[in-house]
């Protein structure tokens, strides 16, 4: 099965580059029969052949290797815990989970969907935090014409939103530990 998936990946990249099997054979300095056997899943390229294929297709060897998806609950938990970085600075609640998600989404089972849900929530939360605070400041200044009322409104909005984020992060950590689905509210579905 792994040979077939890797064969399809190599064929797909070759087609995307507009190369024929003959062209790939010539560019990689491998025989046409070798290319055919690789694309039919009859053999798996290793070492020198893998390097030559990657060079000819202008991709990294890692893109050609079909890494098996591992089950690593600690990485998913780390992604969920990384959301607490919003306490230091709101945008860190996006940046740190984003880095973990990008590095592991294709390698760890379940991390892609949990990462998307997490990032969608943290992005939504950050937009709400900055947007509602700005709206409160402008509205309060226009209506009450005092800066102290604007600061009070902003402090209330910030406190409520920080509490919401804490509740959502803790709720989803508990849900994940119980092997239940991770779900956030409110969420804009920006990453699908």
Description:
- 69% of the residues lie in helices and 0% in strands.
- It has nine helices and no strands.
- The chain has helices spanning 2-16, 21-28, 32-39, 47-57, 61-64, 73-81, 92-104, 111-144, 147-177.
- Helix 6 packs antiparallel against helix 7, helix 6 packs parallel to helix 8 (111-144) and helix 8 runs antiparallel to helix 9 (147-177).
- The longest helix is centred in the middle third of the chain and has 34 residues, at 111-144.
- The protein is elongated and about 80 Å long.
Write the layout of secondary structure elements.
Elements: H1 2-16, H2 21-28, H3 32-39, H4 47-57, H5 61-64, H6 73-81, H7 92-104, H8 111-144, H9 147-177
Helix content: 55-70%
**How large is the count of helical segments?**
9
Largest sheet descriptor: none
Structural class: mainly alpha
Output mean pLDDT: 90
In terms of DSSP E residues, the strand content is: under 5%
Order of helices and strands: HHHHHHHHH
**Cα end-to-end separation:** 27 Å
Briefly, what is this?
The protein has helices spanning 2-16, 21-28, 32-39, 47-57, 61-64, 73-81, 92-104, 111-144, 147-177.
